[in-house]
Write a structure and sequence with these properties.
Layout (H helix, E strand, L loop, with lengths): L13 E7 L5 H15 L6 H7 L3 E7 L2 E15 L2 E13 L8 H16 L2 E6 L2 H5 L4 E2 L4 E5 L2 E4 L6 E5 L12 E4 L7
Parallel strand pairs: 4-5, 7-10
Antiparallel strand pairs: 1-2, 2-3, 3-4, 3-10, 5-9, 6-9, 7-8
């Protein structure tokens, strides 16, 4: 696809499949890993990145037979004070470069957002492209962020960007207070 894609009429069907990790076929897993390595770069999208992406709900957007956008919501330990939250973490949110600015990424994020708002206490993820997510209702976490290790609680934010969050209506979670997650291999946020 070229820069003239915006002027070109889309002629293939656009479909979104929602699948739990265990429901992904071998071909879907292969297509997904290949697409994510293309978006993030093979050296940056590590086996740890792939493991972080698994274990939750995947939103797979295809244009015809081509997987062009993806996002996953993976259950994650999150707490505020003594309150353990029913939380999910957004993983591997991506759109192939040549398919950006056509609304495909927005569709994925909108579907994930609806799931967060209807089924969880909070949804979070680390991002550096704030404007894209903010226009879809996500905000930067304003309070301090921590990780829970075997040695106790340590202040830690994401390696890049900021923690973005989305709450359901009538939430009692305070976005100006602390937010704690568990330690994991790679970037904890």
């Amino acid at each position: 696809m070229t820069k003239s894609r915006d002027a070109r009429r889309l002629t293939e069907p656009v479909t979104v499949h929602v699948r739990h990790t265990e429901q992904l076929s071998k071909q879907e897993r292969h297509d997904l890993r290949t697409m994510l390595e293309k978006v993030f770069g093979r050296s940056r999208y590590t086996d740890e990145s792939w493991e972080h992406c698994l274990g939750g709900v995947h939103y797979l957007l295809r244009y015809g037979d081509t997987l062009v956008a993806h996002g996953a919501l993976v259950p994650r330990y999150l707490r505020q004070g003594d309150r353990v939250l029913r939380g999910v973490y957004g993983e591997s949110m991506a759109t192939l470069y040549d398919w950006r600015e056509l609304g495909f990424g927005s569709i994925i994020v909108a579907m994930a957002t609806a799931n967060v708002r209807n089924n969880y206490d909070i949804g979070v993820f680390a991002a550096s492209k704030y404007a894209f997510y903010e226009r879809l209702g996500w905000e930067k976490w304003r309070g301090p962020t921590f990780i829970e290790t075997e040695h106790g609680i340590e202040p830690r934010g994401p390696a890049r960007g900021a923690v973005m969050f989305r709450l359901p209506k009538h939430s009692t979670i305070d976005p100006d207070a602390e937010l704690v997650t568990d330690m994991r291999k790679g970037d904890p946020w």
